[in-house]
């Protein structure tokens, strides 16, 4: 066939081959025809018998030639027949191949005649084979008028210009889709102008094409959606070629590297992660490409000026490229670091707890235990470092005698394995160990399959609970036997507790109290026991004040039998109220007796004060006469006196002066006790100087070095000018009288913004400690004297009284042989 197509026409039984094949078949047929003609010899006539020898020879030669020709013809005929048989087999093989071909041929002659197989006619919807191209167009069968015109135009173009064509048609009356491919026919198939049209059944192909088109549309939509998702993804994503060059990035990548757009980032090759080498951005992509599996690594990057940690994923694709994306795990890393620090802080805190804590992992190995756990169960750190299993830990606890004594220890231990699988809440047990040790055990299963155990030593609590029970019994016994009547009322006003004294005092039945009556019902029942029945209303008021207002109130009540009781409502911490009643009959009588005695003493004191005042005034009159006559004698009004008499007169004058001062002091004490003081704005410096001038003559008589220092800071105060001057004079008089001749007395005054200070010091013999302790006592024993033998007198008590009237303080410091120092501090303003 020489590569050219052959076809069989089942309708006519003729075969069409190429020109070379047809030529060979014609030659074989010609030889076979002539060989058939010479198979039977021609008939002989009588004339041939009488032929002469020459003719016979000639005839014999001819016959020989004919025989030779016949033999040759028989030989060639046999060869041609063999060749024909072989060619027929080839034709049958070609026809079988043609029948199984996916395309059927149609030959269109230059005059419009067509040659096709019945199979192709069936494809076109015809029951008979059309003879002309125009017959391919029919009503309900064949081609439509439009498709026929298009096919006719395609065939004409192929005949004229040799241009091939392809046309898809759907014949009428047939469910097939045909694809016609035409081209000018070779010369071996007929005269010039023929066109060979191959018809392909594209029904299945079209369905497959439609399916593939739909699949392509679906995949295209999915690709568009995936592209949109990648573009809208908040995490950077990219794609690299096999040579690791960037070829595609999304918007998040562009924003992360601060590029203009994706094209700019790809053209510049901007990498998300800085660096190069083994830890660079291309190392993970190269590892994913070389190993053929995804690669993951954590690298730092700078995004928006902040240092971030990124988890980089590089995934190899079947196309040879590498897809990658990055997840910002900075917050996760910070959270992990925070969780790690929290866990470390928690474990450090657990080490400081008094309770023992142990944690087991999902594999039941010990992962953590605090210091109290090691101490409580006597476990060494070296042994715990090997992460012993739960069973081994229980064995070690048993060896340390820190487990309850049980008969079946293996079974008991197996039951504790359920702690790891419990799902609801925590399990709590109480272990009673030898030696009186009580442990509270709390087992809490962890979400990861582990177990948390907490061991709390409750030995002390149990002992305290036992002691508390004993204390409660003692308290109950004490409560019932108290002399004081007690009742506890609840917040709703009902009686909850009472002692025997409470019941016997009100003389009520035990059944009534056992019913827990309200306070108003109880008050109504006991009202007839009181001297004034309406006083019973105080009990509900006190209970209400203690329970609702949380205020403590009290009072007194008199019973009809003459007894007196002091009662009170006390709020309790639990919201209840305690009602107490104490029998104060005896104390009431004693109080009345003391009150009567106090009144009598007060009256006597008033009489004494009046007597002292009157006596002082009465003493001043003869004292003034004595002083006046003594001065007249000393002045020579009765004539000149001898020196000895003058000495006696001077002694009389000194004694009368001293007696006058004592009388004045007594009067001052009497007036000061009445609190008579007139406050005004006083220049304290002037007061101090005036007091110093008053005592200067007395200091001169004793030849003392009298120094006065008044600073400007002493300022002004609010006070009684006369009382202040007298207070300074008393202090100066005490210093002058107790300083021997030739000594020194210092008066110093200063102050600050809050107070003024006055200091009087001397270098006299000083005072004993007992004398200093009672120096300001108005009623000190006469035996309390200064070191010089002089009595302390009333000067210092008066000075203290005047200073305290002004809200000030006075102190005295003295040392034997070193002198005495008196300090007065006065506030600027009185409260």
Automatic annotation (TrEMBL):
Write down the Pfam families for this protein, in alphabetical order: HATPase_c, HisKA, PAS_7
Q: What is its EC number?
A: 2.7.13.3
Looking up InterPro entries in the UniProt record yields: HATPase_C_sf, HATPase_dom, His_kinase_dom, HisK_dim/P_dom, HisK_dim/P_sf, PAS-like_dom_sf, Sensor_HK_Regulatory, Sig_transdc_His_kin-like_C
Q: Which domain of life is it from?
A: Bacteria
Return the SUPFAM superfamilies for the record.
ATPase domain of HSP90 chaperone/DNA topoisomerase II/histidine kinase (SSF55874), Homodimeric domain of signal transducing histidine kinase (SSF47384), PYP-like sensor domain (PAS domain) (SSF55785)
Q: Which UniProt keywords apply?
A: Kinase, Membrane, Phosphoprotein, Transferase, Transmembrane, Transmembrane helix, Two-component regulatory system
Instruction: Indicate the segments forming the Histidine kinase domain, all copies.
Output: 614-830
Does the keyword field hold Kinase?
A: yes
In its UniProt record, a GO molecular function of this protein is: phosphorelay sensor kinase activity
Q: Which reactions does this protein catalyse? A: ATP + protein L-histidine = ADP + protein N-phospho-L-histidine
For this protein, the parts annotated as crossing the membrane are 57-77
- Official protein name in the record: histidine kinase
């Amino acid at each position: 066939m020489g590569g050219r197509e052959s076809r069989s026409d089942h309708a006519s039984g003729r075969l069409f081959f190429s020109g070379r094949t047809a030529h060979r078949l014609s030659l074989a047929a010609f030889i076979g025809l002539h060989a058939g003609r010479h198979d039977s010899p021609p008939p002989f006539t009588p004339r041939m018998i009488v032929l002469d020898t020459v003719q016979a020879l000639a005839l014999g030669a001819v016959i020989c030639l004919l025989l030779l020709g016949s033999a040759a013809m028989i030989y060639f005929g046999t060869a041609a027949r063999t060749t024909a048989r072989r060619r027929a087999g080839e034709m049958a093989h070609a026809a079988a191949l043609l029948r199984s071909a996916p395309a059927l041929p149609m030959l269109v002659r230059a005059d419009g005649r067509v040659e096709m197989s019945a199979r192709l006619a069936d494809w076109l919807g015809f029951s008979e084979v059309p003879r002309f191209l125009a017959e391919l167009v029919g009503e309900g069968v064949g081609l439509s008028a439009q498709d026929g015109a298009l096919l006719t135009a395609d065939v004409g173009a192929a005949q004229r210009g040799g241009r091939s064509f392809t046309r898809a048609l759907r014949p009428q009356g047939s469910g097939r889709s045909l694809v016609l491919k035409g081209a000018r026919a070779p010369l071996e198939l007929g005269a010039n102008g023929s066109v060979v049209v191959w018809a392909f059944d594209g029904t299945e192909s079209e369905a497959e094409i439609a399916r593939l088109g739909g699949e392509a549309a679906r995949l295209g939509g999915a690709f568009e959606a995936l592209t949109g998702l990648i573009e809208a993804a908040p995490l950077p994503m990219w794609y690299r070629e096999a040579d690791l060059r960037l070829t595609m990035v999304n918007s998040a990548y562009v924003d992360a590297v601060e590029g203009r757009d994706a094209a700019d980032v790809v053209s510049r090759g901007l990498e998300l992660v800085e660096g190069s080498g083994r830890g660079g951005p291309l190392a993970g992509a190269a590892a994913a490409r070389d190993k053929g599996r995804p690669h993951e690594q954590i690298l730092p990057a700078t995004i928006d000026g902040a240092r971030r940690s990124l988890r980089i994923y590089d995934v190899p694709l079947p196309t040879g490229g590498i897809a990658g994306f990055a997840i910002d795990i900075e917050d996760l890393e910070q959270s992990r670091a925070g969780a790690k620090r929290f866990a470390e802080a928690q474990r450090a805190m657990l080490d400081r707890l008094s309770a023992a804590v142990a944690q087991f992992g999902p594999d039941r190995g010990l992962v953590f235990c605090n210091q109290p756990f090691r101490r409580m169960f006597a476990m060494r750190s070296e042994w715990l470092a090997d992460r012993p299993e739960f069973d081994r830990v229980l064995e070690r606890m048993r060896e340390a005698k820190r487990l309850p004594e049980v008969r079946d220890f293996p079974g008991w231990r197996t039951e504790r394995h359920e702690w790891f699988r419990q799902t609801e809440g925590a399990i709590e047990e109480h272990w009673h160990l030898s030696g009186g040790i009580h442990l509270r055990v709390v087992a809490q299963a962890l979400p990861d399959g582990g177990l948390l155990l907490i061991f709390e030593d409750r030995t002390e609590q149990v002992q305290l609970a036992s002691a508390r029970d004993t204390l409660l019994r003692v308290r109950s016994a004490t409560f019932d036997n108290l002399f004081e009547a007690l009742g506890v009322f609840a917040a709703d006003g009902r009686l909850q507790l009472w002692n025997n004294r409470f019941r016997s005092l009100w003389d009520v039945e035990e059944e009534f109290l056992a019913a827990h009556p309200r306070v108003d019902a109880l008050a109504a029942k006991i009202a007839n026991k009181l001297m004034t029945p309406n006083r019973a209303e105080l009990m509900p008021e006190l209970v209400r004040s203690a329970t609702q207002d949380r205020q403590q109130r009290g009072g007194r009540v008199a019973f009809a039998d003459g007894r007196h009781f002091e009662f009170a409502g006390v709020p309790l911490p639990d919201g209840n109220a305690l009602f107490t009643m104490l029998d104060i009959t005896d104390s009431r009588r004693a109080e009345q007796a003391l009150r009567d005695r106090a009144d009598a003493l007060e009256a006597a004191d008033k009489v004494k004060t009046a007597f002292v005042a009157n006596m002082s005034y009465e003493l001043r009159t003869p004292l003034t006469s004595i002083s006046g006559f003594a001065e007249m004698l000393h002045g020579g009004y009765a004539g000149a006196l001898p020196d000895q008499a003058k000495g006696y007169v001077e002694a009389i004058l000194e004694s009368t002066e001293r007696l006058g001062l004592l009388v004045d002091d007594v009067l001052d004490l009497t007036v000061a006790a009445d609190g008579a003081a007139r406050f005004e704005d006083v220049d304290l410096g002037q007061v101090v100087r005036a007091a110093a001038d008053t005592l200067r003559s007395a200091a001169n008589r004793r030849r003392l070095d009298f120094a006065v220092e008044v600073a400007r800071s002493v300022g002004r105060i609010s006070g009684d000018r006369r009382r202040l001057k007298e207070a300074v004079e008393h202090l100066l008089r005490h210093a002058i009288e107790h300083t021997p001749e030739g000594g020194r007395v210092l008066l110093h005054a200063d102050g600050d913004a809050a107070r003024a200070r006055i200091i009087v010091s001397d270098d006299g013999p000083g005072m004993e400690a007992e004398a200093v302790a009672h120096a300001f006592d108005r009623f000190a024993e006469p035996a309390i004297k200064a070191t010089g033998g002089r009595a302390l007198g009333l000067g210092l008590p008066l000075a203290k009284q005047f200073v305290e009237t002004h809200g000030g303080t006075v102190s005295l410091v003295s040392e034997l042989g070193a002198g005495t120092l008196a300090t007065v501090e006065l506030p600027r303003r009185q409260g």
